[in-house]
């Protein structure tokens, strides 16, 4: 059995782990993201890699390489964060692949965190054995990823598949991406909380009444009419985006992951029903809509699979011709 080092860099925490090629996390390290400094994030990550590699040596496990998944848009071939998350200061432009490789003396692959999650689902998860697969990760925001027979769909430099910024209403509220009515405004945790505050007439600046997505789901389950209407709007936006994606990609499967989708199977029932009613029958009939296998560890495991996937040539690995 082979091993690699997986790293998941998020806005609040960094996870590093020694991961077996079957996805088992053998050893893990967790740190708070030093959000105020790019160098701090890089240094912390290098330290965590050293710690994981040292643990591996005590177990006679020599990692095949390092795989990183990070928030933000990534140039996969260069290992550079092209457009970082606003939650990590100066994250844009960081040459993560080069810095980590020099520090650890191991080959490094760097990808966007949702691409990493999709990699886990298509290699050892719910989409194993399938090639045309789309992923939507519904968390604080909404991330997207796609793969086909050539591998992860990256576009010109790696910025493809921002499914959270598909507009489902051209007259909808303004999104911070510049567009209007983006899926993320309705289907993310923050979007669900936003809709609930709006429905209850609570000002966005009023901190005295804390509303978050889990509390909206709880109220909906308890029969609260406003919360139910918000969840119905969320399902409406999500099904509209899924139908557009199905019409565009003709996928075998759409995998839905992230904290929001962990709220229960009833979300999937209403979602599948709406997709079935409103999409082109020839296309929606060929697409399964399923829940992700991997939860909180998805980014870590997916990141760690990169050395195995790309070294074995299962997917084309631009920039790594060895
Ligand atoms: Zn947007």
TrEMBL record:
<dbReference type="Pfam" id="PF00480">
    <property type="entry name" value="ROK"/>
</dbReference>
<dbReference type="InterPro" id="IPR043129">
    <property type="entry name" value="ATPase_NBD"/>
</dbReference>
<comment type="similarity">
    <text>Belongs to the ROK (NagC/XylR) family.</text>
</comment>
<dbReference type="InterPro" id="IPR000600">
    <property type="entry name" value="ROK"/>
</dbReference>
<protein>
    <submittedName>
        <fullName>ROK family protein</fullName>
    </submittedName>
</protein>
